[in-house]
Amino acid sequence: MTLDVPTDPARPVFVLGAERSGASLVAELVRAWGAAPGPVELLVPADATSPRGTFEHAPLADLLRDLAAAAETSLWDRDFPTRVGSLADDPALAARAREHARAMAEPGEAWFWKEPLLGFFLPFFQRALPVPPLCLLVVRNPHDAALSFARARLPKDLAGRLRTTATYCLSWSALVRAVLPALEGDPAHAVLVYEELLRSPVVQVQRLCRALAGVSAAAAENGAARLPEMFEGIDPGLWRSKSEVSFFDLPQVAEAHKELLRHLHRRAAGAAEAYEPARFAAAPYHREWSENFDAFRRHLALRNPETGPSERDRRRHPFWPAPPRNR
Amino acid sequence: MPPARPLFIVGVERSGAGLIARLVGRSLPTGRGGDPAAYAAFSGDLIAARGDRWSPGLPERLAELAADPAWRDRARELIDPVASADGPWLWPYPETGLLLPFWAQLVADPICIVAGRNPYDASRSFLENRFPEKLKRIIQFPAYFSFRWQFTTLVQLSSCAAWSDTLFVGYELMMRSPVEQVRRLVRFLDSATGVSHGDDAVWTLLEDIDPSSWHFRDEHAFFELGSITKEQKQLFRYLQRRAGDAAEPFAPEHFPMPPYAWEYLRNFDLFVEQAVGESV
Which of A78, A168, A285, A325 best probes binding to B when mutated, by most B CB atoms within 10 angstroms? Predict the structure, then answer.
């Protein structure tokens, strides 16, 4: 019996980036390029905060929740990526990941996942999937993303009172610290800067296409023809939350985070610059703060018992079952 | 006749400042505290006027308020009845610590006792005794309290560390070696106030010290906690050296608050207020 296995297996595309970082825009471009986002009925619907949709896949969110529970530690534990990576040795979890992957598209057809916390789980999927993912890391000015996050995710009655820049920087940098080591040694990845996508769409979309050429030869050939459709997907009018002060001039931002953003910008501009974890170590208070902020968000969502967390929120962090306490 | 000297006792919550205030109150013959209700009302108004409690500009803002004639007049109404005593007078409100930059502008030649305790142990005591029960199970505390401790300590020391008569008292030393520490306290008060106390005073004050009341004794944990910054550990070691009578000037630039501390402090307090309707 001959198995009908494609000779050119497509690498899955992972669109990585913190919430409100522009990852949804890149996901839309990847879809326009020709990668499948999965059945539309399984995607989280568009809403006022993401009017063109987020391309977030509900079964994937459920899998990530279950992986987090199996890791038995907080997402903000600096060992979380390592622990979740070891779960690839669990036959049931690995099989479930492969089953989800198979359901995304026909054999050989390009497909992608986009999910804000996916980067923390990269070590798991790199081992569990038959073909390792091609990663696109989307980066945005964290202060602007924090402002957007506050508007989109936090109650309006707290607007102006609750500050989010530092909180966002801590979680954003944790995601980047989880992703960059996993990309070392894999040249087929790209760092994309949200602001550059909107300022120089032609150059950046062409760059994206060159990165996506690593998905498979067939997909790359088809994708090149989709450039016009991809350009049409970029609407600079969607670039809201633009602060007038440069992130690098904000006194309330830690120097390590400014340097991390500079590092990512250099890589996005083509610099072959290795990631040095010691330069960007987590702040000692990061885990307590991030876990408390998650508790805060859960409390805010439960303030009104009639509404509680939205259906979207219910399957997503921080509404997953609480991890063991950080002692 | 020179004006009577005020004696401030400051310290972060649960650091032993209350114990020191009791000891000193028993040893000073005259001039205590004034009207607690009036002080509380004034402090409340001052706190509202200063804006954000957690802000790097707090000391400067308080100094500005102290230069305002309206605030000075109100403050003098509180101080003058006490300051007219024939000797040093005790300002026994430990929460004065964060307001010290205000009061320091209004009094001459103050005396200060700084109470210090391992911040981790103080945080556990605060959590147990002062934190809303509803939140204890869901909120973590060490890093938040350490920021609070660090900032309060920096504000206090920026005012009093260079005063000619400032004594640092370590809570742990007081509990372990009460005789030695009470003698030290009495010697300091004798020198600063010009009032001589005999050995009888030492034994009288010792009656107020009960080492069995020393709960939360995990002194090493603070230096091992992953959530504590290097600068916070160094600041506590500085306090320990001063409590051991090291003559070491205070250099705040050695203990900077990280830029993110303000947001965490403010957000944490906001969360508590949202969750239980009160502040801590």
Answer: A285
